[in-house]
Amino acid sequence: MNTTQISEIKALLSTPKNIVIVPHRNPDGDAMGSTLGLYHYLKKLNHNATVIAPNDYPDFLKWLPGDDTVLKYETQLEEGNALLEKADLIFTLDFNAYHRAGHQMAEVLEASNATKIMIDHHQQPDDYAKYMYSDVRMSSTCEMVYNFIEKLGDENKIDETIASCLYVGIMTDTGSFRFSATTTKTHQIIGSLIEKGADNSQIHNNIYDTNSYSRLQLLGRALQNLKVIPELRTAYTTLSQAELDEFNFKKGDTEGFVNYGLSLEGIIFAAIFIESKQDNIIKISLRSKGEFSVNEFSRAHFNGGGHTNAAGGRSEEDMETTINKFISILPQYKQDLS
User: Fold this and answer.
1) Which structural domain, as residue segments, surrounds residue 200?
2) pTM to 2 decimals?
3) For the chain, what is the domain count?
4) Which of 47, 137, 306, 316 is least surrounded by CB atoms within 10 angstroms?
Protein backbone atom coordinates (compact mmCIF):
# COMPACT_ATOMS: atom_id res chain seq x y z
CA MET A 1 0.00 0.00 0.00
CA ASN A 2 1.70 3.17 -1.19
CA THR A 3 1.75 6.69 0.26
CA THR A 4 -0.97 7.93 -2.08
CA GLN A 5 -3.33 5.13 -1.09
CA ILE A 6 -2.66 5.72 2.59
CA SER A 7 -3.43 9.43 2.13
CA GLU A 8 -6.68 8.58 0.33
CA ILE A 9 -7.74 6.15 3.07
CA LYS A 10 -6.83 8.69 5.73
CA ALA A 11 -9.09 11.20 3.97
CA LEU A 12 -11.89 8.62 3.76
CA LEU A 13 -11.61 7.98 7.48
CA SER A 14 -11.48 11.67 8.40
CA THR A 15 -15.28 11.91 8.65
CA PRO A 16 -17.71 9.40 10.22
CA LYS A 17 -18.70 6.55 7.91
CA ASN A 18 -20.85 3.43 7.98
CA ILE A 19 -18.24 0.67 7.97
CA VAL A 20 -18.57 -3.11 7.90
CA ILE A 21 -15.59 -5.35 8.71
CA VAL A 22 -15.73 -8.95 7.46
CA PRO A 23 -13.50 -11.94 8.33
CA HIS A 24 -13.52 -15.24 6.43
CA ARG A 25 -15.98 -18.05 7.09
CA ASN A 26 -15.11 -20.19 10.12
CA PRO A 27 -12.98 -17.37 11.52
CA ASP A 28 -9.88 -18.20 13.54
CA GLY A 29 -7.76 -16.18 15.98
CA ASP A 30 -6.19 -14.02 13.29
CA ALA A 31 -9.52 -13.31 11.61
CA MET A 32 -11.32 -12.31 14.82
CA GLY A 33 -8.31 -10.58 16.35
CA SER A 34 -7.77 -8.42 13.28
CA THR A 35 -11.43 -7.55 12.71
CA LEU A 36 -12.07 -6.65 16.35
CA GLY A 37 -8.76 -4.80 16.63
CA LEU A 38 -9.70 -2.71 13.60
CA TYR A 39 -13.26 -2.31 14.92
CA HIS A 40 -12.05 -0.73 18.18
CA TYR A 41 -9.68 1.56 16.26
CA LEU A 42 -12.45 2.75 13.92
CA LYS A 43 -14.80 3.37 16.86
CA LYS A 44 -12.13 5.66 18.30
CA LEU A 45 -12.38 7.65 15.05
CA ASN A 46 -16.16 7.96 15.61
CA HIS A 47 -17.18 5.64 12.79
CA ASN A 48 -20.33 3.53 12.84
CA ALA A 49 -18.44 0.25 12.55
CA THR A 50 -19.72 -3.33 12.76
CA VAL A 51 -17.99 -6.70 12.47
CA ILE A 52 -20.09 -9.22 10.54
CA ALA A 53 -18.68 -12.74 10.77
CA PRO A 54 -20.02 -15.12 8.10
CA ASN A 55 -20.74 -17.71 10.80
CA ASP A 56 -19.93 -18.60 14.39
CA TYR A 57 -16.43 -19.18 15.77
CA PRO A 58 -14.87 -21.16 18.65
CA ASP A 59 -15.72 -20.39 22.27
CA PHE A 60 -12.04 -19.84 23.11
CA LEU A 61 -12.22 -16.60 21.08
CA LYS A 62 -15.36 -15.26 22.72
CA TRP A 63 -13.51 -13.47 25.53
CA LEU A 64 -12.15 -11.01 22.95
CA PRO A 65 -13.18 -7.40 23.67
CA GLY A 66 -16.14 -6.54 21.44
CA ASP A 67 -17.28 -10.14 20.93
CA ASP A 68 -20.78 -9.14 22.08
CA THR A 69 -21.07 -6.68 19.17
CA VAL A 70 -20.27 -9.19 16.40
CA LEU A 71 -23.10 -10.13 14.03
CA LYS A 72 -23.22 -13.70 12.72
CA TYR A 73 -24.39 -13.44 9.11
CA GLU A 74 -25.59 -17.04 8.96
CA THR A 75 -28.18 -16.45 11.69
CA GLN A 76 -28.71 -12.67 11.31
CA LEU A 77 -29.17 -12.38 7.56
CA GLU A 78 -31.67 -9.52 7.53
CA GLU A 79 -29.68 -7.30 9.87
CA GLY A 80 -26.41 -8.18 8.15
CA ASN A 81 -27.74 -7.41 4.68
CA ALA A 82 -29.12 -4.06 5.85
CA LEU A 83 -25.73 -3.05 7.25
CA LEU A 84 -23.89 -4.19 4.13
CA GLU A 85 -26.35 -2.32 1.92
CA LYS A 86 -25.82 1.02 3.68
CA ALA A 87 -22.06 0.60 4.18
CA ASP A 88 -19.78 3.32 2.83
CA LEU A 89 -16.68 1.19 3.41
CA ILE A 90 -16.23 -2.56 3.67
CA PHE A 91 -12.99 -3.99 5.07
CA THR A 92 -12.30 -7.64 4.21
CA LEU A 93 -9.71 -9.07 6.59
CA ASP A 94 -7.72 -12.30 6.52
CA PHE A 95 -9.12 -13.45 3.17
CA ASN A 96 -8.65 -12.36 -0.43
CA ALA A 97 -11.47 -13.92 -2.45
CA TYR A 98 -15.20 -13.35 -1.94
CA HIS A 99 -16.03 -17.07 -1.81
CA ARG A 100 -14.04 -17.35 1.45
CA ALA A 101 -16.92 -15.53 3.15
CA GLY A 102 -19.33 -18.27 2.09
CA HIS A 103 -21.50 -18.39 -1.02
CA GLN A 104 -24.42 -16.34 0.31
CA MET A 105 -22.34 -13.54 1.79
CA ALA A 106 -20.01 -13.52 -1.24
CA GLU A 107 -22.89 -12.56 -3.52
CA VAL A 108 -23.87 -9.63 -1.28
CA LEU A 109 -20.27 -8.42 -0.97
CA GLU A 110 -19.78 -8.57 -4.73
CA ALA A 111 -22.99 -6.64 -5.38
CA SER A 112 -22.16 -3.90 -2.86
CA ASN A 113 -21.14 -0.46 -4.16
CA ALA A 114 -19.21 0.31 -0.98
CA THR A 115 -15.50 1.09 -1.23
CA LYS A 116 -13.61 -2.13 -0.47
CA ILE A 117 -10.36 -2.30 1.50
CA MET A 118 -8.55 -5.65 1.72
CA ILE A 119 -5.99 -6.44 4.42
CA ASP A 120 -4.65 -9.97 3.99
CA HIS A 121 -1.52 -12.13 3.89
CA HIS A 122 -2.63 -15.13 1.83
CA GLN A 123 -1.32 -15.98 -1.62
CA GLN A 124 -2.89 -15.14 -4.99
CA PRO A 125 -5.45 -12.46 -4.06
CA ASP A 126 -8.46 -11.70 -6.25
CA ASP A 127 -8.60 -8.16 -7.60
CA TYR A 128 -11.85 -6.91 -6.04
CA ALA A 129 -10.80 -4.17 -3.60
CA LYS A 130 -10.05 -0.56 -4.45
CA TYR A 131 -7.35 -0.59 -1.78
CA MET A 132 -5.32 -3.79 -1.31
CA TYR A 133 -2.83 -4.27 1.49
CA SER A 134 -1.70 -7.78 0.52
CA ASP A 135 1.63 -9.17 1.68
CA VAL A 136 2.35 -12.90 1.91
CA ARG A 137 5.54 -12.21 3.88
CA MET A 138 3.53 -11.02 6.88
CA SER A 139 3.08 -13.36 9.84
CA SER A 140 -0.59 -12.52 10.22
CA THR A 141 -3.35 -10.11 9.31
CA CYS A 142 -3.14 -8.77 12.86
CA GLU A 143 0.45 -7.70 12.24
CA MET A 144 -0.77 -5.99 9.07
CA VAL A 145 -3.55 -4.17 10.95
CA TYR A 146 -0.92 -2.87 13.37
CA ASN A 147 1.14 -1.66 10.39
CA PHE A 148 -1.99 -0.16 8.80
CA ILE A 149 -2.81 1.87 11.92
CA GLU A 150 0.86 2.89 12.17
CA LYS A 151 0.89 4.03 8.51
CA LEU A 152 -2.16 6.18 9.22
CA GLY A 153 -0.16 7.89 11.96
CA ASP A 154 -2.36 6.55 14.75
CA GLU A 155 -0.11 4.10 16.60
CA ASN A 156 -0.77 6.15 19.73
CA LYS A 157 -4.44 5.15 19.49
CA ILE A 158 -3.60 1.49 20.10
CA ASP A 159 -4.75 0.87 23.65
CA GLU A 160 -5.02 -2.25 25.81
CA THR A 161 -8.21 -3.38 24.04
CA ILE A 162 -6.81 -3.10 20.51
CA ALA A 163 -3.46 -4.53 21.63
CA SER A 164 -5.14 -7.61 23.14
CA CYS A 165 -7.04 -8.31 19.92
CA LEU A 166 -3.99 -7.94 17.70
CA TYR A 167 -1.80 -10.04 20.01
CA VAL A 168 -4.20 -12.98 19.59
CA GLY A 169 -3.88 -13.15 15.82
CA ILE A 170 -0.12 -12.77 15.77
CA MET A 171 0.29 -15.43 18.45
CA THR A 172 -2.03 -17.97 16.82
CA ASP A 173 -0.91 -17.50 13.21
CA THR A 174 2.78 -17.76 14.14
CA GLY A 175 2.27 -20.90 16.24
CA SER A 176 3.27 -18.93 19.34
CA PHE A 177 6.08 -17.20 17.39
CA ARG A 178 7.80 -20.37 16.12
CA PHE A 179 6.85 -20.30 12.40
CA SER A 180 9.28 -18.93 9.82
CA ALA A 181 7.11 -15.88 9.04
CA THR A 182 7.91 -14.58 12.54
CA THR A 183 10.42 -11.77 11.99
CA THR A 184 12.32 -9.26 14.06
CA LYS A 185 9.57 -6.78 13.23
CA THR A 186 6.95 -9.24 14.48
CA HIS A 187 8.68 -9.45 17.85
CA GLN A 188 9.02 -5.66 17.99
CA ILE A 189 5.27 -5.32 17.41
CA ILE A 190 4.54 -7.96 20.08
CA GLY A 191 6.72 -6.00 22.50
CA SER A 192 4.81 -2.84 21.67
CA LEU A 193 1.45 -4.58 22.20
CA ILE A 194 2.57 -5.82 25.63
CA GLU A 195 3.70 -2.30 26.50
CA LYS A 196 0.26 -1.04 25.47
CA GLY A 197 -1.46 -3.47 27.85
CA ALA A 198 -1.82 -6.87 26.17
CA ASP A 199 -1.51 -9.49 28.93
CA ASN A 200 0.50 -12.11 27.03
CA SER A 201 0.29 -14.79 29.73
CA GLN A 202 -3.47 -14.49 30.17
CA ILE A 203 -4.09 -14.38 26.40
CA HIS A 204 -2.09 -17.59 25.93
CA ASN A 205 -4.07 -19.23 28.73
CA ASN A 206 -7.40 -18.10 27.20
CA ILE A 207 -6.52 -19.59 23.81
CA TYR A 208 -4.50 -22.71 24.57
CA ASP A 209 -4.75 -23.79 28.19
CA THR A 210 -8.45 -24.41 28.67
CA ASN A 211 -9.54 -27.84 27.39
CA SER A 212 -12.70 -29.83 27.88
CA TYR A 213 -12.49 -33.53 28.70
CA SER A 214 -14.37 -34.36 25.50
CA ARG A 215 -11.89 -32.35 23.37
CA LEU A 216 -8.96 -34.30 24.80
CA GLN A 217 -10.82 -37.55 24.09
CA LEU A 218 -11.38 -36.36 20.51
CA LEU A 219 -7.66 -35.62 20.20
CA GLY A 220 -6.98 -39.14 21.42
CA ARG A 221 -9.19 -40.55 18.67
CA ALA A 222 -7.47 -38.39 16.04
CA LEU A 223 -4.11 -39.74 17.22
CA GLN A 224 -5.45 -43.31 17.13
CA ASN A 225 -6.46 -42.70 13.50
CA LEU A 226 -3.06 -41.27 12.53
CA LYS A 227 -1.39 -42.95 9.56
CA VAL A 228 2.18 -42.47 8.32
CA ILE A 229 3.58 -42.90 4.80
CA PRO A 230 7.29 -42.83 5.65
CA GLU A 231 8.62 -43.11 2.09
CA LEU A 232 6.75 -39.87 1.25
CA ARG A 233 7.39 -38.25 4.64
CA THR A 234 3.64 -37.73 5.05
CA ALA A 235 1.21 -38.26 7.93
CA TYR A 236 -2.54 -37.95 7.88
CA THR A 237 -5.49 -38.56 10.16
CA THR A 238 -9.26 -38.60 9.90
CA LEU A 239 -12.28 -37.79 12.02
CA SER A 240 -15.72 -38.96 10.90
CA GLN A 241 -18.95 -37.23 11.79
CA ALA A 242 -19.79 -40.18 14.07
CA GLU A 243 -16.52 -39.66 15.95
CA LEU A 244 -17.14 -35.92 16.27
CA ASP A 245 -20.61 -36.65 17.64
CA GLU A 246 -19.29 -39.29 20.04
CA PHE A 247 -17.05 -36.73 21.71
CA ASN A 248 -19.52 -33.81 21.68
CA PHE A 249 -17.59 -31.81 19.09
CA LYS A 250 -17.80 -28.02 19.31
CA LYS A 251 -16.49 -25.53 16.77
CA GLY A 252 -12.76 -25.09 17.29
CA ASP A 253 -12.19 -28.43 19.04
CA THR A 254 -9.94 -29.76 16.25
CA GLU A 255 -7.79 -26.61 16.12
CA GLY A 256 -4.12 -27.64 16.02
CA PHE A 257 -4.75 -31.39 15.65
CA VAL A 258 -3.01 -31.47 12.25
CA ASN A 259 0.24 -30.30 13.86
CA TYR A 260 0.64 -33.55 15.79
CA GLY A 261 1.31 -35.41 12.55
CA LEU A 262 3.80 -32.78 11.49
CA SER A 263 5.65 -33.15 14.80
CA LEU A 264 6.68 -36.74 13.96
CA GLU A 265 10.36 -37.22 13.21
CA GLY A 266 11.00 -37.25 9.46
CA ILE A 267 7.53 -35.95 8.51
CA ILE A 268 7.32 -32.78 6.39
CA PHE A 269 3.68 -32.99 5.20
CA ALA A 270 0.62 -33.54 7.41
CA ALA A 271 -3.10 -33.52 6.78
CA ILE A 272 -6.33 -33.98 8.70
CA PHE A 273 -9.64 -34.88 7.05
CA ILE A 274 -12.79 -34.00 9.02
CA GLU A 275 -16.25 -35.04 7.90
CA SER A 276 -19.02 -32.43 8.04
CA LYS A 277 -22.48 -33.88 7.41
CA GLN A 278 -24.01 -30.41 7.79
CA ASP A 279 -21.99 -29.00 4.89
CA ASN A 280 -21.84 -32.37 3.09
CA ILE A 281 -18.07 -32.07 2.64
CA ILE A 282 -14.77 -33.33 4.01
CA LYS A 283 -12.87 -30.39 5.50
CA ILE A 284 -9.12 -30.61 5.00
CA SER A 285 -6.27 -28.91 6.87
CA LEU A 286 -2.75 -29.19 5.49
CA ARG A 287 0.60 -28.31 7.07
CA SER A 288 4.19 -28.64 5.88
CA LYS A 289 7.78 -27.91 6.77
CA GLY A 290 10.38 -26.33 4.51
CA GLU A 291 9.53 -25.47 0.93
CA PHE A 292 6.79 -27.99 0.17
CA SER A 293 3.81 -25.76 -0.70
CA VAL A 294 0.53 -26.99 0.72
CA ASN A 295 -1.04 -23.87 -0.81
CA GLU A 296 -0.23 -25.13 -4.31
CA PHE A 297 -1.17 -28.71 -3.38
CA SER A 298 -4.56 -27.64 -2.04
CA ARG A 299 -5.31 -25.32 -4.95
CA ALA A 300 -4.44 -28.03 -7.45
CA HIS A 301 -6.42 -30.87 -5.87
CA PHE A 302 -8.80 -29.82 -3.09
CA ASN A 303 -10.44 -26.47 -3.94
CA GLY A 304 -8.49 -24.55 -1.32
CA GLY A 305 -5.39 -22.53 -0.65
CA GLY A 306 -3.60 -20.53 1.98
CA HIS A 307 0.10 -20.23 2.72
CA THR A 308 3.16 -22.23 1.69
CA ASN A 309 3.19 -24.14 5.00
CA ALA A 310 -0.45 -23.91 6.09
CA ALA A 311 -3.53 -24.29 3.90
CA GLY A 312 -7.05 -25.63 3.85
CA GLY A 313 -9.24 -27.39 1.35
CA ARG A 314 -12.41 -29.39 0.88
CA SER A 315 -13.73 -32.47 -0.85
CA GLU A 316 -17.30 -33.20 -1.87
CA GLU A 317 -16.57 -36.93 -2.05
CA ASP A 318 -17.00 -39.27 0.90
CA MET A 319 -14.15 -39.89 3.35
CA GLU A 320 -12.89 -43.12 1.78
CA THR A 321 -12.84 -41.65 -1.73
CA THR A 322 -11.14 -38.49 -0.49
CA ILE A 323 -8.41 -40.41 1.33
CA ASN A 324 -7.83 -42.67 -1.66
CA LYS A 325 -7.49 -39.60 -3.88
CA PHE A 326 -5.04 -38.01 -1.45
CA ILE A 327 -2.88 -41.14 -1.31
CA SER A 328 -2.97 -41.55 -5.10
CA ILE A 329 -1.79 -37.98 -5.65
CA LEU A 330 1.20 -38.12 -3.30
CA PRO A 331 3.59 -40.02 -5.63
CA GLN A 332 3.41 -37.06 -8.04
CA TYR A 333 5.23 -35.08 -5.32
CA LYS A 334 7.78 -37.74 -4.38
CA GLN A 335 10.75 -35.59 -5.40
CA ASP A 336 9.48 -32.57 -3.45
CA LEU A 337 8.68 -34.68 -0.39
CA SER A 338 11.96 -36.56 -0.36
Assistant:
1) 3-208
2) 0.89
3) 2
4) 137
